[in-house]
Amino acid sequence: MLPAHSIIFFTTASGAGYGLLFWLGLLRPLGLVPGGRDFGLTALGLALLLITAGLLSSMLHLGRAERAWRAVTQWRSSWLSREGVAAIATYVPAGLFGLGLVQDMPGLVTAMGLLAAAGAVATVYCTGMIYASLKPIRQWSHPLVVPGYLALSGFSGAVLLAMLGGFWGSGFAAPALLALLGGGAAFLLKSAYWRAIDTAAPVATAESATGLGRIGTVRPLDPPHTQSNYLLREMGYRIARKHQAKLRRIVLAAGFVLPMLLALLALLSGGPLAMAALALGTVLALGGLLVERWLMFAEATHTVTLYYTGR
Amino acid sequence: MTCLPEIKPGQKQLGLVIDLDTCVGCQACATNCKEWNTSGHSAPLPDIHPYSAGAEGVWFNRVHSFEAGEGEQGRTVHFPRSCLHCETPACVTVCPTGASYKRAEDGIVLVNADICIGCQLCAWACPYGARELDADAGVMKKCTLCIDRIYNETIPEAQRQPACVLTCPTSARHFGDLGDPESEVSKLVAARGGYDLMPEMGYKPVNKYLPPRNRTSTAAKPVEDAPTPMDIQNPLLRWVDRVLSR
């Protein structure tokens, strides 16, 4: 599948934003992040900035962005529509969370923080389900795809929250610990996912796609046209195997392991070193996630290519 | 509304039956499809660089050619590919705007170009590659089963069929109600063992393909060239050959 830059940025940025919102809403009532108004507003502002930038980026993928509002109407059947509804709905508790912080209403802050956290999970779950529900793309229609989106969102959100805690000089222990756990979970999930998609059998074959398997093996002879087309560009994108292995190692090392080590360093050292380590860890984690999301598309194959290449 | 209409047994399901035994891969169906539909319900079907290198565009129907089998049993099969107007089309249910829909009255899957946002999720959801983005209009386009022909009362009744069916020089394409087991197309499917493409996907295509017929005998071997009298260089021996051949 063609790695569309708008969607790669969208799922990475919004995923991190929702992860940050989730941990903020959850950890603040527990007193595990700095409790002051400024920290809360800064973290909320960063989360909403990332979410909004991502959502705006996703509109660049549309042929008719001015009609984007219509996308919230078909929530009964469409995961994309549900994602839109969840994303918009989450702004409400997130906004009231901010209002509670400004007006110093602890009860409202706690309640809306938890609601916003729930909205964040729901939105990222819908994002994952958009991909997981597409049967023709076996690398997406996989049981580890939704857990992967949730884990990566949680991981990047924890990394961001730890970084903000580092800037505040205190209260980063819990998010840094969560970043460690999230990074570990992401590492295991993605490793298991890549093993699974590398060994899984294709969902369909050139024989079943044409029904000509009754005669024997099927090989494409002539394509319909001598030039390329939309289907081949959008669905026929393939990544070179040697690059694939290298990029996977980059994701695991730069995206997960190094940020985990830096979080550990921050936990052990504290002070300005912790701030620097957590900031660097955030940059690495988000960069790694961009590569991971690019791979998510580049590694995915669509059954329509059976008609063109037989594979 | 992108929820699918409930399909009861015997309900009208218009579709195509494509005979892979008689299709000669002439591309007439694809050409006439383009010709009719570029000014039809989903018009236009854009072309990019139509008169230079990199010419391409939106086509509802694309004719592939495959080789199947080995040796003497091997066949070249021409294979037209278009929307199958599935009973459970995920291209419809994934649509976030309601632009994609399956008509309850005849099962035709259509796109409402006025509300499509061009998110392309339907193209991802279709295993058969039936949907293409019109990059000019920013909306998705697909086979309409010539909805503007089959119900068109301004053209002679005999012509109220999809353009691809009308134009096929070998009558390899048939149009009719596949929901009615007594229709001509349903009988044809039953008689010839018509089948679904990628049944494992579970989309339940309405369109059916008829397999190439089994060969009754293997192809005859080429006859060895027999020598003619002119192959004999020696004039004396040539005369002897002629005498003995009488």
Structural features, described:
The complex is a heterodimer of chains A (311) and B (246). Chain A is mostly helical and 311 residues long. Chain A has one domain (5-309): Formate dehydrogenase/DMSO reductase fold (Up-down Bundle), CATH 1.20.1630.10. Chain A has helices spanning 5-27, 37-59, 79-103, 106-132, 145-168, 173-199, 206-210, 230-235, 241-269, 271-298, 305-309, and one strand at residues 218-222. The two termini of chain A are 14 Å apart. Chain B has a single domain (14-210), classed as Alpha-Beta Plaits. In chain B, the strands form five sheets. Chain B has a three-stranded mixed beta sheet with strand order 10-1-11. Chain B is an alpha+beta fold and 246 residues long. Chains A and B meet through helix 3, helix 7, strand 1 and helix 8 of A and strand 3, strand 4, strand 5, helix 2 and helix 3 of B.
- Shape summary of chain A: globular
Number of strands of chain B: 11
- CATH topology heading of chain B: Alpha-Beta Plaits
Which stretches of chain A are poorly predicted, pLDDT < 50 over at least 5 residues?
none
Q: Evaluate the radius of gyration of chain A.
A: 21 Å
Structural class of chain A: mainly alpha
Output the CATH class name of chain A. Answer: Mainly Alpha
**DSSP summary, beta strand count of chain A:** 1
The main β sheet of chain A shows up as: none
**The CATH homologous superfamily of chain A:** Formate dehydrogenase/DMSO reductase domain
CATH fold name of chain A: Formate dehydrogenase/DMSO reductase fold
Strand content of chain A: under 5%
Main attributes?
heterodimer; A: 311 residues; mainly alpha; Formate dehydrogenase/DMSO reductase fold; 11 helices; 71% helix; B: 246 residues; alpha+beta; Alpha-Beta Plaits; 3-stranded mixed beta sheet; two-stranded antiparallel ribbon
Short characterization:
Chain A is mainly alpha-helical and 311 residues long. Chain A has helices at 5-27, 37-59, 79-103, 106-132, 145-168, 173-199, 206-210, 230-235, 241-269, 271-298, 305-309; one strand at residues 218-222.
